[in-house]
Structures are given as C-alpha cells and as structure tokens.
Design a protein that fits this description.
The chain has 145 residues and is an alpha/beta fold. Strands 1-2-3-4-5-6 form a six-stranded mixed beta sheet, covered by helices on one side. α1 links the parallel β4 and β5. The longest helix is centred in the last third of the chain and has 14 residues. The N and C termini lie far apart (48 Å).
C-alpha cells in the first residue's frame, strides 16, 4: 500500500522550516494538520560565527502530544544548525525528560542554561555588554561548555 510513515491517530502533519531571516532573528519549525491548523511550533536561534544554537520554545497542541511531533520538529531545527553546539532555555520537569529522550535519539546534547555564545543572549546580552557584565553569563568562545 503506502510507502510513507503511518499517519498519526489524529492525521498527518506538515512540517515547515523557516530559517532565521537575520543573525539576531529566531527561526521556526511549524507543524500544521491537514486542515491547515497550527498544532505545534519550535522556535530557535543560531549563531554561525560561534556555531551554536539555542532552542527557545517548543509547543505541541495537547491533543497531539505523544505522537513524536515534538521530536520530529526539534530534529528539523537541529538540521538548520548541523554540527552546532545546542542548548535550551529553562526546562520544566516534563521538558527535561523530553530533552533527555531527544538527546539520546538524536545524539545532540540539549542542556539548559546560559547561552553558548554572547550573540544568543538577545536584548539581555546587549544590556549586560553595555554594563561590562556579559562574561558573567557567557563563556569565552574557546571555553568548553
């Protein structure tokens, strides 16, 4: 019969990857069902000079959880920064379990905490830079994380 993966109980999902438009912008992976309704989203930022990535947020419609959609969307985001070091913003208790599973499946560590480079700090980092305090939350480029 069909050659693709089996459809989920709630129907197939289309993933759309939107790379960051600028160095400071966030990229997205959007998940839409067959009716076009948004059922999930992953937001991320990339820093090409430092080869780092940061997952900013993951949202999956509650009725569509446990279908592997979050893992699929994160895999697409990670592909945008292939070979980059990645981390996440603060993780909830369920989020920690999710990120441990993704780390095991994808082989890419997804720890939470401070950004891996000064460029991913956003407006907060700019303010710290003006105050000369950026080094408190961000390691130098050559420091292992």
């Amino acid at each position: 019969m069909g050659t693709g993966p089996p459809a989920s109980p709630s129907g197939p999902v289309r993933l759309t990857s939107i790379p960051p438009r600028t160095a400071r912008a966030a990229g997205e992976v959007l998940l839409h069902d067959v009716s076009g309704a948004l059922v999930g989203q992953v937001r991320f930022r990339l820093c090409a000079p430092c080869r780092t990535g940061r997952l900013l947020g993951i949202w999956i419609l509650e009725s569509r959880r446990q279908e592997g959609l979050g893992r699929r969307a994160v895999r697409v985001a990670l592909a945008q920064g292939h070979g980059h070091r990645w981390n996440t913003t603060l993780q909830t208790r369920p989020g920690r379990g999710f990120f441990l599973a993704v780390t095991a499946h994808e082989g890419v560590p997804l720890r939470h905490g401070r950004p891996l480079c000064p460029h991913l700090l956003g407006p907060f980092g700019s303010a710290l830079g003006r105050l000369g305090l950026r080094r408190l939350v961000c390691p130098p480029h050559d420091e292992p994380s």
